[in-house]
Amino acid sequence: MSARRVLVVCALLVLVVAGCDRPGNDEAGRGDGRSTPVEPAWREATLPVPPGPAGRLVLRDAVSCAGVWFLVGGVVDATGGSRPAAWSSTDGSTWLPVPVAASTFYGRQHVLYAAACAAGRVAALGAKNGGVHGNPRTGTWVRDGDGPLREVPAAFELFGGPRAVSVARVAAGAQGWLIAGARADGAAVWTSPDAAGFTLAEGLPELAGDARGRTAAYDAVALPVGWLVVGSLLPAGGTALRPMAWTSVDGRSWRRAELPVPDGRGRAERVVPRDGGPVAVGAVSDGFAVWWADDGSRWRQVGGFGAAGAGVLSVVGLAVVGGALVAVTGDGVGRAVWVSTDGGVSWRSVRVPLPVADGGDTALTVAGGDGRLLLLADDGRGSHAWWGRV
């Protein structure tokens, strides 16, 4: 081989190696889980069993406001009977049961599955399957200051009835409270100034389904002015969902935006507020996509992670921890945790202390506050809470 050909081959090798070392060479910003997983120094928190009948704890969501942590779930006995439960902590080490005041037959059996807080007030969603068809009997709960968490009485068809589809997540902000979900004609919201009683808004132009297709809402956050809801659209005559977002100043008039993804397929399932604009994460054809918007309406995909699994992909948790984003995903087999320290561009897997299957009576979710990560895990046999730093 001539000296000239040797030089050419060496130059090509240098370019290939440099390309392999460059982040995002195959797909911009995509974490594949093959890099060394992040291993937080997990420290388990001890939660006391609330007063009442014996049973195992089920932990479903947590939120932090003004230095106070609030955790919700329930207690389930050996026969499957359940009751709502909640805990609070000012330091993350010592947890105290929060008194729970239920007022209805199904409320006394609720498992609380979502929570939000603002200005010293906490609101939670709870549900229990029941009735002739075994549908969720959903309701809301509210707590002021150090008082009990009390069930908010509501008419059956506010969250249930023949038009009910889902009651997904609750958000809080300076303008009040908003629940995202879906009704028979598509995405819907429930709003309240104080979480002491919600008003249903369904069939709203742009938010609900129309001739363009059927919509669904999965999560919401407060914007500096108004609200942001994320979800999906199933186009009329189509078979694949498209990721969507909606913004509103008052919770009544909405603007919709389709989130960009190469083949148009996917769902925007979780969203969090972040400095510089909200970040949404959802399942797409080849894994999980991350979108960012400076104002909640002009979206661009900034990254992606994970690989398609054997089952239906989903995003079941998302939190901001210091400057990092932490997401929880499912692939039909198991659930996994991922972290990004660059705004969602690149991701690494996080080693968790308890394997959790995807589906059934299991749960894995995260919450952030005070620069710390709180991981809640339920493998169907028991629930645990761990602290870590990413």
Task: Characterise this structure.
With 390 residues, the protein is mainly beta. The protein has helices at 3-21, 156-159; strands spanning 30-31, 43-45, 56-65, 68-76, 82-89, 96-97, 100-101, 111-118, 121-130, 135-144, 149-152, 164-173, 176-183, 186-192, 199-201, 213-222, 227-235, 242-248, 255-258, 270-272, 279-284, 287-293, 299-305, 314-321, 324-330, 335-340, 348-350, 363-369, 372-378, 383-388. Strands 1-23-22-21-20 form a 5-stranded mixed sheet, with no helix packed on it. β5 (82-89) and β6 form a beta hairpin. The longest helix has 19 residues, at 3-21. It is globular, with a radius of gyration of 22 Å.
Number of strands: 30
Give the structural class: mainly beta
Strand content: over 45%
Which parts are unreliable, with pLDDT below 50 for 5 consecutive residues or more?
A: 1-29
Query: Radius of gyration, Cα only, in angstroms?
Result: 22 Å
- Span between termini: 51 Å
Q: Round the mean pLDDT to the nearest integer and report it.
A: 90
Query: Spatial order of the strands in the main sheet?
Result: 1-23-22-21-20
Our count of helices gives 2
Helix content: under 10%
Cα shape:
globular
Biggest beta sheet attributes: 5 strands, mixed
Organism: Micromonospora humidisoli
InterPro entries: WD40/YVTN_repeat-like_dom_sf
Protein name: Exo-alpha-sialidase
